[in-house]
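Summary for the steering committee. The consortium agreed at its last meeting that each partner would contribute one worked example illustrating the joint modelling workflow. Our contribution is presented below. We chose a case with several input lines so that the handling of multiple components could be demonstrated. No manual editing was applied between input and output; the record is shown as generated.
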Amino acid sequence: MKKWVYAFNSKKTDGNRDQKDLLGGKGANLAEMSALGLPVPPGLTITTEACIDYYKQGKKINNDIKEQVKSEIKNLEQMLGKKFGDDKNPLLVSIRSGARVSMPGMMDTVLNLGLNDKAVEGLALLTENPRFAWDSYRRFIQMFSDVVMQIDSDLMEHELEHMKKSKGVNNDTDLNADDLKKLVDIFKSIVQKETGFPFPQDPTEQLWLSIGAVFGSWNNNRAMDYRNHYGYSHEWGTAVNVQSMVFGNMGNDCATGVCFTRNPSTGERALYGEYLVNAQGEDVVAGIRTPAPIDDNNRNDSNRHEKSLKEIMPKAYSELVEIYNKLENHYKDMQDMEFTIEKNKFYMLQTRNGKRTTLAAIKIAVDLVNEKLITKDEAILRVRPDDLNQLLHPRLDPNAKRHTLAKGLPASPGAAVGRICLTPEKALEYKNAKDKALLVRLETSPEDLAGMIAAEGILTARGGMTSHAAVVARGMGKPCVSGCGALHVDYKAKSATIDGKNYKEGDWLTIDGGTGEVIEGKVPTIEAGISDDFAVFMKWADDTRKLRIRTNADTPHDATVAIQFGAEGIGLCRTEHMFFANDRILAVREMIFAENTPDREKALAKLLPFQRDDFIGIFRAMNDKPVNIRLLDPPLHEFLPHEKHEKEDLAKALGITVQAVDLRIEGLHEFNPMLGHRGCRLAITYPEIYKMQVRAIIEAAIQVSDEGIKVHPEIMIPLVISKAELAILRKDVIEVSEECLKKAGKKIPYKVGTMIEIPRAALTAAEIATEADFFSFGTNDLTQTTLGASRDDAGKFLPIYVEKGALVADPFVNIDETGVGILVKMATTEGRKSNPKIHVGICGEHGGDPKSIEFCHRTGLDYVSCSPFRVPIARLAAAQASIKEKQNNK
Amino acid sequence: MKKWVYAFNSKKTDGNRDQKDLLGGKGANLAEMSALGLPVPPGLTITTEACIDYYKQGKKINNDIKEQVKSEIKNLEQMLGKKFGDDKNPLLVSIRSGARVSMPGMMDTVLNLGLNDKAVEGLALLTENPRFAWDSYRRFIQMFSDVVMQIDSDLMEHELEHMKKSKGVNNDTDLNADDLKKLVDIFKSIVQKETGFPFPQDPTEQLWLSIGAVFGSWNNNRAMDYRNHYGYSHEWGTAVNVQSMVFGNMGNDCATGVCFTRNPSTGERALYGEYLVNAQGEDVVAGIRTPAPIDDNNRNDSNRHEKSLKEIMPKAYSELVEIYNKLENHYKDMQDMEFTIEKNKFYMLQTRNGKRTTLAAIKIAVDLVNEKLITKDEAILRVRPDDLNQLLHPRLDPNAKRHTLAKGLPASPGAAVGRICLTPEKALEYKNAKDKALLVRLETSPEDLAGMIAAEGILTARGGMTSHAAVVARGMGKPCVSGCGALHVDYKAKSATIDGKNYKEGDWLTIDGGTGEVIEGKVPTIEAGISDDFAVFMKWADDTRKLRIRTNADTPHDATVAIQFGAEGIGLCRTEHMFFANDRILAVREMIFAENTPDREKALAKLLPFQRDDFIGIFRAMNDKPVNIRLLDPPLHEFLPHEKHEKEDLAKALGITVQAVDLRIEGLHEFNPMLGHRGCRLAITYPEIYKMQVRAIIEAAIQVSDEGIKVHPEIMIPLVISKAELAILRKDVIEVSEECLKKAGKKIPYKVGTMIEIPRAALTAAEIATEADFFSFGTNDLTQTTLGASRDDAGKFLPIYVEKGALVADPFVNIDETGVGILVKMATTEGRKSNPKIHVGICGEHGGDPKSIEFCHRTGLDYVSCSPFRVPIARLAAAQASIKEKQNNK
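What follows is the complete predicted structure of the assembly.
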């Protein structure tokens, strides 16, 4: 019989940490900790395969699985001397999801399962604590009703509030056993009314229903959103962990806490955690009470006066310290641990690699190498390239005036400036309108995920450093300030009060996730400074990678930024943006309207000095590094005037009527501009356009070379579809270049090559390569043509394609390896065969996407080119690709 | 040393007819005739390789070539006892171009070369005919000045006219020796004035200059246009034939003529020709004098009263008859011969396979098989598939009222209706405006070629059945009436008078090239009848071909026409045209505007009965043959209203305002509709659209099958880019189909497959094939995406691409074998590997293009599909492809 269930306990542990795909992260780590001899409450893990089977059976748990679960429950009963549903010593278990990757709060959990009308009495007797027993039963019914029976949670919440009100108390803890017993009755009658059946008393029935509900929660909307956001497969399924309960809420000798082995914000090597006395684990995460610090090192403004764990439970604290060292040595990574202390006995409930800010990730990786726990290669693989974004994006200008309204917890570093949005929907609305949103909430929950993704940053009134908002924001690299007590949110009035001052939705607000500051209005930001660890880390990456990293930059400013980020050259300098500048657009339009070559040449002559200056600026900025310049690419109608006064200016300059201008504009209209008269097609019909640009490039190169800079211009001809076409244009380029150089009496090496961005160019690359010094894959256009999908129009169907699985990912984000990728491979291989010296790179936006960069490495390209801010990301992704290849070749 | 020069004379002939690529058609045939012992004036051929070398040397003739020519000229002098430039018995030669294919009148010719101030005296003495000698010299200078020295021909023409006027005569022949001598002096002074040098007296210098000029004429504009039109390579080069002169213009015992061995209009087996007494060959072709008939069989309205060659030169006539039989037996094809009779001695100047109408080509091919001269395979190769157009296109409705204005010669059969255009430019203008042009000229010359291509038909006032207009028109399959004496053209007044009635440019006129009639206004036309020979010929083709031929038809009428033309099924039935019909467009628009699935389904339900009736009609028409139906393809915005009243109707139907309608229309706008939300993307987002169509197809199939017809529906899903996408849609199709069939209790075999029209589909064909019963290459869209060129917009650059050689041909006409073709091959091979049963065809317009059909045959497709009128063309092209493959495999 297939093994569906894996036990973990001090006697027998079936799984280990390498079985994350099968047991989920939580299950694999529970097994690993059990095997390590750590104090883990015993339990069992139902595999992810069982989840897949559950869906295959039409949402039914098959009998084999049930048998195996039952058998392991029996073992548990024997081991613990407890019995399911027993009126003396009942076995209580928790039911938790656990996928192969952590999806915090996305799926469902049921605690205290096993309680019923009899067992609750047993628990009261055993613990000598009827209040605790009835509170546990009350919580169980509430959770089970919500998660398993999908009863509106407000119904019971309302009764709870009502009870507190009628008793004149504020906290749940102020209700006594009788109150809670009454509540249990009320809750049970709600269940009867809502479902037509009494609350299930059979613990085994409770178990099957809960396991099914957890499997079911794999496909709830927020879990799907989360997976879509992170690109995780919907096919994986979740495991289910059934674990005997321990209680942090049995009295003041009980506690529960969450702790990181290193600081997840900074990476500092020291315990970082919070705990609550007499509480269950969910209480810490939910942020309902502000937790106390683990030790003095963890004190902050909001917990300054709480007693630390070290102070009140020194034995448990020292156990925690011991375990933390053990786990780090074992896992060789920073751990995120959950623990519970039941009557002074310490239990580990979970460990997993802790989420961290990128700053922390880099420091931890570098420290772990220095501590000789991991290799440099391992360190390089520890940081998600995309996460470097966090380091590269702006922080608040320290010199700017700021009016700080309040201070919350510095939950996720970075500055965010946006308009106040009180709902995720509003945040999405602003985002879609290309405006900036700041999500302001009492506290966040997984339902808010889409809004958190849309927002620049997150501000919450409640919750600690490990609250939902904090954890998720750090994972995303979004600035977050949590637990800001001075913030009051009125969802109904659509306003927020901060320190007594009222703000409406849409008002601007700034937060600094590094300090916890909440600041009025828009504060100017500046670029991020970069740590020493970062420099060390990136040096390791640079030493490892094979791909060269260039940048797409059209201006000296962009070029300078990119060099600071480590760019080794320009892979794509577009020349069309230059045409739009105010001082030249009229000449551009005269050129377009010219009816013959001499007129066109006259207009182009006006543009020449401007273009030359553009290139001089860029050559200077790039100082000795190669600069790849793409000749004019867009269709000419993009440069035409739309405004009346522009048309009048043009008409005047040309000595024609505005009507005539309109007529010509109409004549230049295209049905599918993407597939129209653009790219080098302009130069086949009007050779003088490219000739002017080449002259500008070479004359600029001559001038800058006179300043002592070694210039390496690369002249790129876009949209080529045939060898003959490229040969015609290459001849023009060389003629003009040689003429300029001869006149100046200089020798400057320059290259002439082409974009490969049309399928035919890729298909005939062997021929084209004989006329090209380099290929640069323009994967934006290559994706559009290979998939027959216009990027501007695909928004209407691509998301649905990804949702329905008709495409595995958005091909404009991750290169479409099975389609576009085949062409890239083919062209690279065939091009090199006929021209072994050819230099091959990529300049589409995929050049900054880690997955695509890995593809480029595997395909053997020479370089990738991306936007300046993505250069570090590309450097790291290239290094990781190189390491992964080494590992695969072992 | 490389052999650049091939001699042909009665003693030694170096070449033969198989060397057309090297010697040109004329040279190869002169060699062949010489070797056959026919009376050919001796000469030599300079190879096409010499022409290529000439261009390579920067338009210089290399010394090796000159040496070889000189040596052969010496042989000629010895053989004929004449000497270059001799004052007693000068050797005179003609210099003629000759490419591997006939390009009538496209390149230059120089006659009477060798004459100079001394030789003219020798010629006068020798012939005892000073008038002839001076006339020859006069002609030589005129031709040489025009062709070699590029002096404006009007200058000398003007002097000739002036001389005639001052002498009070009408014809050149009325000028005497002295007049001509004076003209020679005048001409020589024009040369001195225009070039700064005297007219060259050295025959060898004359020779080199003339040879260079003929080589140069290979690349004149009209030759380039001609080659572009017929798709001939510009790389071939022309040979040059230097041949000793014989004179048809030495007196009344001299003549010159042109003769076909069979009737080029009907194919009838009988000499078909014209001649002129006392004339040079060019006089017949130029159509300046109306020629006399070869024999009684060649009499027509305009030459009824002329004496035939048989009557006045019976010996020469019987020599001609003998030669004609010899040549047909030798060449096994109808010949087009040029002959000259010099003082009663018969000379063959040229033979070549004669151009003919398609009607004639088919009759000749069938006759030659019956005469056992050629095989059926050879016969099939004798007809250019495109030429079948001539047989398939309309002729005048015999029952229509017609006012015949005049009668000319029935030079090329078929009816043409168009607006009078007096210049080729005007004809092009109408053609470009999608209007119909009829080119009306005094006579045509090679400069008119572009206009002839643009025109529906050609009408000339002068010229015989072998005039330029007649020969070229027959070659193109264009209706032509030549030599219409009642026609007077006034280029200046832009009007034409026919039988005294005045017509302006732009007025409508009709011609019948089969009868020679010129008819007022627009006469209705009907489809062509098809001859018995045609049926026999096509039966041979059908027995030979491997490709099946289907048709693209959207209506029962088209389907019926296609079946009459031999279609074996429908390869593409588009369903979008059906959506535009008046009775359903409103429902279509309601469907588009639906905001949810139920509303969309409601609108679609209204369309269902219409669609079902459409398919019932087509299934009935196709009677047992397979019908491939493409589900909806265009973007929905194509169906939106543009007119105000349509918008109002829609607003009313939907209960919304016209402004709301406008807003929705704006929302559906796409930047690149070709790459937008269309094809099966519509069904991924709105599955109910295809479901309705599938229901209509299957319900129609059920109903027609109840009528006893075996229906073979094939359901085609367009624009597929991934296997997963097709799998989703195929599942829908099968579900709906099975539901309909189950309900009806019927079993009807149906196929589900896809278009391959996006590069990604071709690249992933191996995967896609596992979900498809068939592939149909949509090469229109596949060409657009593979080349990144929108057909609607490419008009601005594609012609220039072909002109500059950046592409070898218009890829929308001939399939782009090196680009698109690679994808077609790849998809076919890979698709068959993973699904050996897959059926593969093509339904783009290339399916009707013979070159592309040959490619499809070579690639191993199962069928091609084309428009109904191209079905016979495709049948023949497929047969030829099959034969060529057999020949290549030998």
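Chain B touches chain A through 49 residues (CB under 8 Å). Residues 738 and 783 of chain B are 36 Å apart (CA to CA).
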